Amino acid sequence: MNAMLRLILGQAVLALVLVATTVSAQTVLIDFGSDTSFRGLSVVNPDANGNNWNNIAPGAFFSDLIDTNGVATTIDFGFSTPVGTDSYNGPAGDTSAGAAASVGNTDIDAAALGDLGVLNAAFDFVAERDTRFEIQGLDPSKQYDLTFFGSHKYSGNATTLYSVYTDNTYSTVVGSATLDIQDLVDPSLHNRDTVATISGLSPQTGDILYVQFTGTNGDYGYLNSLKITAVPEPASAVVAIGLVGIAAASRRCRV
Questions:
Q1: Which region is the signal sequence (predicted)?
Q2: Which of 44, 63, 68, 196 is an S-S bond match for 179, by CB 3.0 to 4.6 Å?
């Protein structure tokens, strides 16, 4: 292998690494409930998986959420409607003794939940009818996947509907998913191993995702934690890889 060919191959490998970095997914994790919320508990960063979380309680607007690496992003979060937070009858059952004394009772299948399978994050939740929030500061060149974990027992509604809308009128749905937050037959059995995901969402009006969740029969909906995954639009990835191929072909022609 001559020196020129080695140089070309080295540059091609470097270019592919740069492309892989460019198209890799950015992930933001949100724990609904914190040390400051009612019977709530924050995730201590980093968690057992090495990921960093944003601990969110109602009543505040959260700017520049951190990603799983602990790096600040442009993503902001805020509720648009009133919502309550608690942990009672969530995955830990009766938490009237307090969060610190009860978190060890949290019953989830951590492996099945993946990044969301963290005790402190699953422990508490927000709940209300027609709860709305906005995920702001999104990149219009990317698409986003939203993964929801909701879990509660003895609920008035066993299923929660999560929906994303085009704007703050919440009239046109662009994506939705349902999740059984408790067993459909036995209300004493909370959801411990299942998430709901809405994939391929482009930022809507104002580079925002307008999200609503509620019980499917009009009762309370539940949300314990949320995973936001940002990936480049498919066309962007194809263009980037194509440019690498063109550059490599050009160099081959000059050899």
A1: 1-25
A2: 196
Phi, psi of 155 (to 5 degrees): -85, 155
Q: What is the mean pLDDT of the chain?
A: 88
> Of 138, 135, 161, which is closest to residue 223 (Cα–Cα)?
161
CB 226 within 8 A of CB 126: no
pTM of the model: 0.85
Identify the structural domains of the chain with CATH numbers, from first to last.
Answer: 3-254 (2.60.120.430)
**Contact in structure between 133 and 54 (CB atoms under 8 Å):** no
Contact call for residues 224 and 34 (beta carbons, < 8 A)? no
Nearest to 245 by CA among 4, 22, 11: 11
Calpha distance 90→175 (Å, rounded): 26
Q: What contacts 3, CB < 8 A, 6 or more positions away? A: none
- Phi then psi for residue 247, to 5 deg, are -65, -40
> What is the rounded distance in angstroms from the CA atom of residue 38 to the CA atom of residue 131?
18
Helix axes 3-23, 234-254, angle to 10 degrees: 170
For residue 29, which amino acid is it? L
How much of the chain is helix, strand and coil, in % rounded to 5? Answer: 25, 35, 45
So what's the pLDDT on residue 248? 43
Residue 99 Cα to chain centre, angstroms: 23
Tokens 């809405």 appear where? 198
Token duo for residue 231: 């990936």
Rounded Cα distance between 245 and 82, Å, is: 52
Residues 6+ apart with CB under 8 A from 13: none
One-letter amino acid at 46 equals P
